[in-house]
Design brief:
The complex is a heterodimer. Chain A is built from 15 helices and 23 strands. By secondary structure, chain A is α/β, with parallel strands linked by helices. An 8-stranded parallel beta sheet of chain A has the order 11-21-20-18-17-14-13-12. Chain A has a 3-stranded mixed beta sheet with strand order 6-22-23, covered by helices on one side. In chain A, helix 8 links the parallel strand 17 and strand 18. Chain A is globular. By secondary structure, chain B is α/β, with parallel strands linked by helices. Chain B is globular and about 60 Å long. Classes of the chains: A alpha/beta, B alpha/beta. Chains A and B meet through helix 3, strand 5, helix 5, helix 6 and helix 7 of A and helix 1 and strand 12 of B.
């Protein structure tokens, strides 16, 4: 007998004609939602989350997951999700917690932006047979570059160029800590980044010993909890990032529950095993832009000015003014995470209702920095729902230098977006620390899939550029005229600085 | 504490010792000079006429001693790993920020957020400190930070404390005039220990997270080496320090927020 009024959301339908009773599904389910009682049956106490691991390991294709057809009498305002949330809170008194990004139907601006293409009056370029430049440099650029002749007559830059990250394609893997994801998942991303000539990010959980060989492709984070932050770590990374905020949970801290703090995580974070890992809401040494400047330059001193310093913020209402302050504080890269950005765990109400979409944020920041004449002082990374190469191209046209992807990379590792990352039961071995689950994820297998994904996007991006008639990504960057809007209101188009289709 | 300019040489320079005059020097140049001196194999670096330069000793990974005359700026010894920094005066905010190892000694008062996120090493402050001191200190089996304050600490002492030892001794006049610690002491603490000597009211302790009780002989025995070292450094009388009872504040739980959340259905 279920001890809750929250109805089951999903049901497992088992075709007993096909089932060979091999029990792979029972053993495979991280949530314990299947049991074997002479035959495979849904478990009494644990519920299916529709992660589809069982469906994928069943050799007979005998399992189907269906949504519980009529959970409640239909109501357009009091939708089933909302009734279930209130019911759960009535039963527990708890703050609702979710994983992954905002799943509410707020609309996606990417889907209302059309990219241009060449026809007749200007030629398109064939990227399969002609060179296409995607290499991207992230970091502060000088106001002007002076060139001089070297001893052998060769041209070289006279102006000293601040440290840069060099990306072969304008994508990085977004920060996901060891703790929020498994070490195998992190290793898969690190290996893929190395192979692709791009970067991965440690997130705020420090850098595990085994991943130091991949540190030269890592952006190492310094967040409010300062987990695993020490001199060797700061110096090992290709860049250091101060994490102020995250799109899924702007303005609040983090909390890795003690049960996830295994020996390896405790060692990497420098905390006792089994204790909660709390990330304070603010950095308590940063209460202002001036204080941010202080930490940026503390890190520059500690790394002897050898690496760029990035500042990651969530996209919020005054993002353009905040970004301007961050650039003036000395950041070399600003990472903006939109309100659909993912998370290992965030209070549901925060995830679903705080912040603004990345599309408007990146456009507003790029416009503001240009207007103030400081756009060259900082590169912009846009993140928070980059789902494919078209989103990537549109973000770049709106002013991003590169995009960060997380959910897309996890999908490459098997993620089915069941949104249960916070439970630590991920059947795919991604957002869990249970050894019987993490060992399912072979880093080499994962790295190949993630690398395939990014390579495919890279080819598609070249095709988009070819269709636009440009042979370098730099020609698309901030080129809003190559975008047109459909079904977007006038004010949003004004902020995006994008004309309506047909204009 | 005096901050008069140094016109006379305190130590003779030799292959091990060097003296840097910080007067009018931007912190970036000053820190370059310090790093150069370390690169040259100097073991004792004396910096005189310091006036608010930030980041002194920041990220230094070497077994050297840096003596500072004058008042250093914020983020003194941030991310430092192994060196000793001695300030012969007051210090400002964020001393020992994310300190990894080594020792910082301040022969005066210090400001807010001292020892934020300390992973190891020691910070000894002779006088009083400000708000949010020793917050989110951590520990691991081979590394345990110790922060000792001779005087008093303001609000939010040891917030989010995850490990290490925080000791506030109440030896200054400020302590005699009021309490040793401000409000919300130990709020969110889930590891480590806070020792307080002198007048502490229950209302100062964040009781949802922390439990306060009188320290036993055994409790004191555990911090005796640190107290001895602290007294030696500043010339305090250990017996006098031990003559007054101590309170020990420990976390109520290692997982204080475990019950606050439920999965979204």
């Amino acid at each position: 007998m279920r001890n809750t009024l929250v109805p089951r959301r999903f049901k497992q339908v088992i075709d007993y004609e096909k089932c060979q009773r091999c029990k792979r599904c029972v053993m495979g389910c991280g949530f314990g939602a299947l049991e074997f009682q002479g035959r495979v049956v849904p478990s009494e106490k644990n519920e299916c989350v529709a992660c589809h691991y069982c469906v994928n390991v069943c050799p007979e294709e005998a399992i189907t997951i269906v949504e519980n057809p009529l959970k409640f009498r239909p109501h357009d305002v009091w939708q089933p999700d909302i009734i279930m949330q209130a019911t759960r809170q009535a039963e527990t008194g708890g703050v609702l917690l979710s994983g992954m990004g905002n799943d509410r139907p707020w609309g996606v601006i990417w889907d209302h932006l059309c990219l241009d293409a060449c026809q007749v009056t200007n030629p398109s370029i064939d990227p399969l047979r002609e060179p296409m430049e995607l290499r991207t440099f992230l970091g502060r650029k000088p106001d002007a570059v002076e060139v001089e002749r070297g001893p052998n007559g060769e041209l070289r830059a006279k102006t000293s160029i601040p440290p840069q990250l060099v990306l072969e394609t304008p994508v990085i893997f977004a920060p996901m800590s060891f703790g929020s994801i498994s070490l195998n998942a992190q290793k898969a991303l690190a290996m893929a980044a190395k192979e692709l000539g791009i970067y991965w990010s440690t997130g705020e959980g420090g850098l595990h010993r085994d991943l130091y060989p991949y540190a030269d492709r890592a952006i190492v984070q310094c967040a409010s909890g300062r987990f695993g932050v020490h001199e060797e770590y700061l110096k090992a990374g290709a860049a250091v990032e101060i994490k102020i905020g995250q799109g899924a949970k702007p303005g609040i801290g983090g909390h890795l529950p003690g049960r996830k703090v295994t020996t390896a995580i405790a060692e990497t974070r420098g905390i006792p095993e089994g204790t909660d890992a709390l990330s304070p809401a603010p950095h308590h040494d940063i209460y202002s832009i001036e204080d941010l400047r202080q930490l940026i330059w503390a890190i520059k001193e500690a790394t002897e000015f050898r690496v760029p310093v990035s500042v990651k913020i969530a996209a919020v209402h005054n993002v353009a003014a905040i970004a301007s302050g961050i650039v003036r504080a000395g950041a070399d890269i600003i990472y903006i995470d939109g309100f659909r950005g993912g998370t290992g765990a965030a209070p549901t109400m925060i995830r679903n209702h705080l912040g603004i979409p990345i599309e408007v944020a990146v456009a507003a920041v790029d416009s503001r920095l240009r207007k103030q004449g400081i756009r060259n002082q900082c590169s912009i990374i846009a993140a928070g729902s980059i789902r494919n190469s078209a989103d990537l191209a549109k973000a770049i046209a709106l002013g991003a230098d590169a995009c960060a992807i997380a959910t897309a990379a996890l999908v490459a590792l098997g993620c089915h977006l069941c949104q249960q990352c916070h439970t630590g039961n991920c059947s795919w071995g991604i957002t869990t620390q249970r050894p019987e689950l993490t060992r399912r994820l072979d880093p080499a297998w994962g790295a190949e899939r993630v690398a395939n994904l990014v390579r495919a996007w890279t080819e598609e991006l070249k095709e988009i550029l070819g269709a636009l008639g440009v042979n370098a990504l730099e020609s698309l960057r901030g080129s809003r005229d190559r975008l047109r809007a459909v079904f977007l209101d006038e004010k949003t188009r004004e902020v995006l600085d994008v004309k309506a289709a047909g204009e | 504490m005096t901050s008069k300019e140094h016109t006379t040489q305190l130590v003779a320079e030799d292959s091990e010792r060097v003296r840097i005059d910080a007067k009018g020097l931007h912190y970036r140049l000053l820190n370059e000079r310090i790093r150069e001196a370390i690169g040259d194999g100097r073991k004792y670096i004396e910096v005189v006429n310091v006036c608010g330069q930030r980041y002194i000793g920041d990220g230094i990974q070497a077994q050297v001693r840096i003596d500072i005359y004058g008042i250093p700026g914020n983020d003194l010894a941030a991310f430092m790993d192994g060196a000793e920094v001695v300030v012969h005066n007051n210090a400002q905010d964020a001393v020992g920020n994310t300190l990894n190892s080594g020792r910082v000694i301040v022969h005066g008062d210090a400001g807010d957020v001292i020892g934020y996120g300390m992973r190891g090493g020691k910070v000894f402050i002779r006088g009083d400190v400000g708000y949010r001191v020793g917050i989110h200190m951590k520990e691991e089996p081979r590394r345990k930070p110790v922060l000792v304050v001779g005087g008093t600490a303001a609000d939010f002492l040891g917030e989010y404390l995850a490990g290490g030892v925080l000791i506030v001794l109440g030896l200054t006049d400020t302590a005699r005039r009021g309490t040793v610690v401000g409000d919300y002491c130990g709020t969110g603490m889930h590891g480590g220990l806070i020792y307080l000597r002198g007048a502490v009211e229950d209302a100062h302790i964040a009781d949802r997270f922390a439990e306060k009780r009188e320290a036993t002989q055994e409790d004191l025995q555990a911090i005796l080496p640190d107290l001895t070292e602290f007294c030696e450094v500043f010339g305090y009388d250990l017996d006098e320090v031990l003559a007054q009872p101590f309170w020990v504040v420990r976390p109520s739980s290692r997982n204080p927020y475990g019950g606050s959340y439920v999965p979204n259905p």
